[in-house]
């Protein structure tokens, strides 16, 4: 019999709507009364780690969750399921993906509809997550996100719709597997993975989105000795308005790592354009191009690298590609 640890952290999956349709955490998690539908096949152990809406989740909470999962690996657990709010689910999942070894299947899930809404998706997502975590094939694939019968890599999945139950998608690549009628089916696996078993998390790693007519003001505001890193969601393939360049150079001169991704939904950031503010110039300045991650994921990766105490060169190699 498989032994699966279910860790509840809050979110819509743990909420109920009031008469007006407003959702909020209650005194009791409705998942606490959940009955194991796989009795005889899967033994469930359940813990409420915390009960927070996902906008309240911080890197410190992510680290707390990572430490609990790492402990579970020595307790004879065959897999872990984490229930989580969807707003920051992809960031927590990717943080865990970067900081946990791949031997133990870890699956993150949530819900877009609260427990007492018509068409609530929470219990179904929880059941499919348990099925996935108890499947031997789920090992060595990194942390997984299971929602709406699809299995996604934590590395690439993102929330694409504010309320739709099919909100989690993987741009460009698609899901790596499905939860079908007769079981879990995988179609893809990770190329490689790098694990950073950090013990603390750095702060003051920022994310800035570029826009037409952008000036230096936001970059100047974070040019502080306490700043540990900056991720820029740049225009197109990886370009910035010329007025930002002196402020970006100032950050680099201060030894602050500056990472660049594209603000586009699909594609990767590249040093393609050779004009003022173009990717060629930015790369020559020392900006790190991160390929394949969105802004929030790149920030998590930069934060983990800084927290691990990586040197400038190590950090540049670590952040530059999603396939590590």
From TrEMBL:
It catalyses: L-asparagine + H2O = L-aspartate + NH4(+). Gene3D superfamilies: 3.40.50.40, L-asparaginase, N-terminal domain. InterPro entries: AsnASE_II, Asp/glu_Ase-like_sf, Asparaginase/glutaminase-like, Asparaginase/glutaminase_AS1, Asparaginase/glutaminase_AS2, Asparaginase_C, L-asparaginase_C, L-asparaginase_N. The active site is at 12, 86. Residues 3-188 form the L-asparaginase N-terminal domain. CDD domains: L-asparaginase_II. Residues 204-317 form the Asparaginase/glutaminase C-terminal domain. It comes from the Bacteria. Keywords: Hydrolase, Signal. It is an enzyme of class 3 (hydrolase). Residues 1-19 form the signal peptide. Its EC number is 3.5.1.1. Belongs to the asparaginase 1 family. This is asparaginase.
């Amino acid at each position: 019999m498989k032994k699966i640890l279910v860790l509840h952290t809050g979110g819509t999956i743990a909420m109920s709507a009031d008469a007006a349709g407003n959702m909020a955490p209650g005194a009791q998690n409705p998942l606490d009364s959940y009955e194991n539908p796989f009795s005889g096949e899967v033994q469930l152990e359940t813990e409420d780690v915390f009960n927070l809406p996902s906008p309240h989740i911080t890197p410190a909470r992510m680290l707390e969750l990572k430490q609990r999962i790492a402990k579970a690996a020595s307790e004879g657990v065959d897999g872990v399921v984490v229930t989580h709010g969807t707003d920051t689910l992809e960031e927590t999942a990717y943080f865990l993906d970067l900081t946990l070894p791949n031997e133990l299947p870890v699956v993150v899930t949530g819900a877009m509809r609260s427990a007492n809404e018509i068409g609530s998706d929470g219990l179904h997502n929880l059941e499919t997550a348990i099925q996935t975590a108890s499947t031997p094939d789920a090992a060595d694939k990194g942390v997984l996100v299971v929602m709406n019968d699809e299995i996604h890599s934590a590395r690439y999945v993102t929330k694409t719709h504010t309320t739709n139950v099919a909100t989690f998608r993987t741009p460009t690549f698609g899901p790596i597997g499905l939860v079908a009628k007769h079981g879990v089916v995988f179609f893809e696996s990770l190329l490689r993975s790098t694990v950073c078993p950090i013990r603390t998390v750095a702060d003051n790693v920022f994310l800035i989105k570029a826009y037409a007519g952008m000036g230096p003001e936001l970059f100047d505001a974070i040019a502080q000795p306490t700043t540990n890193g900056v991720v820029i969601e740049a225009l197109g393939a990886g370009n910035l308005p010329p007025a930002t360049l002196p402020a970006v150079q100032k950050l680099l001169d201060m030894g602050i790592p500056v990472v660049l991704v594209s603000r586009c939904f699909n594609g990767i950031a590249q040093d393609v354009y050779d004009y003022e503010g173009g990717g060629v110039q930015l790369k020559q300045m020392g900006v790190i191009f991160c390929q394949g991650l969105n802004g929030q994921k790149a920030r998590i990766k930069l934060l983990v690298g800084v927290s691990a105490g990586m040197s400038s060169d190590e950090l540049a190699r670590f952040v530059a590609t999603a396939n590590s």
